[in-house]
Amino acid sequence: MVKGNSYKIMGMSIPMFLVISVVVLATCYLDVLPKGQIGALAVMMVVGAILNEIGDHMPIVKDYLGGGPIIVIFVSAAFVTFKIFPKSTVTIISNFMKGEGFLDFYIAALITGSILGMNRNLLVKAAVRYLPAILGCIVVSLVFVGVAGGLMGYGAKQAIFYIGIPIIGGGMGAGAVPLSKIFGSGFNVDPAKMLSVMVPAVALGNALSIVMGGLLDKLGKTKPSLTGNGSLMRDKSQEIVEEKAEKNEIDLGKMGNGLLIALTFFCVGCIIAKFLPGIHQYAWMILSVAAIKIIGKMPREYELAAAQWYQFIVKNFTSALLVGIGVAYTDLNEVAQAFSVQYLILVAITVVGAALGAALVGKLVGFYPIESAITAGLCMANMGGTGDVAVLSASKRMELMPFAQISSRLGGAFILILASALIKLFA
Minimal CA–CA distance to 397: which of 371, 376, 372, 361? Predict the structure, then answer.
């Protein structure tokens, strides 16, 4: 990125970043990369930063396919497939992702901080009307893709679990990745194999969501009665308004508190899963965090601490995590086998179903159909934060960002809970 007159990567000047990159990559190819988190994180952060920067500046990719994240995952996977990464480096990264729990560490911060950091009043007000619209999105999209999958010979179950749920699951890090672990344990399938099918669905779903956002904007101009031109509620007196954001100044001690809170909630999920093993620990963690948030018993200073830790992790380690996903969980051969005309049609049906379901239920609860379709539908089907920005930009409705965030955070979290429950029915 450009800051002032200088170009920076990860906030560093190019000369500084180059020196670091040369040192880290030299340890890989001289076969002296330290084992464990030191070596793995060093390589993942350097490679992730480079690939993310490339992806964020590639035409089409940056506008429709999610930009950096997609490039990071697929190019990292290609480095393994074509043996560009030394075998020892692949082993160290894979062990760090799978055996040493970096993925769980990231997800704990993501779920805890994103939910606790939300405005409670907005959350409670939105629950009555907005969450039903999200449920409409989920039900219609999964029914559509399940029926279509059955009729097309792809398989209803496979269409729902491999395509439908990942698309509306909240993106990559908070959606497809934890879903692959949930499904892997439930179906006794290697999570890497499942993720290789899910990743293309998430990317294509994101692209179609952005395109559809633009089409809905045009529909609103043709049929003005369907849109509030950026206003969600038909009855303006009941409009859900986001309150002014609180200041959450950087505090190293607070960040440490947030780290411990995130780890503790992950432990809570593990404890509950011990006694109620039918549901994945991720789902129990989400439910416990949501319960604490809704009853409002956690002091706000600790909620903000968890939010600050989440922001630190997401900003500094997301690209690194995506390198790990590409190396440890993405098999390009499996990805290639997943692609077919059937696959592309099912992705499109999922996105259309998401928008249609949200529009129909949204209208019933007093929303404008187009605004409901965009926020409760397309912002469920896109790739989380970056997808929200892209969809709202395409539809020219950036003022709906608070609702897009509810879809990405709570909607995505709900999908993990739903996935754990559905496993019990279909496994």
Answer: 371
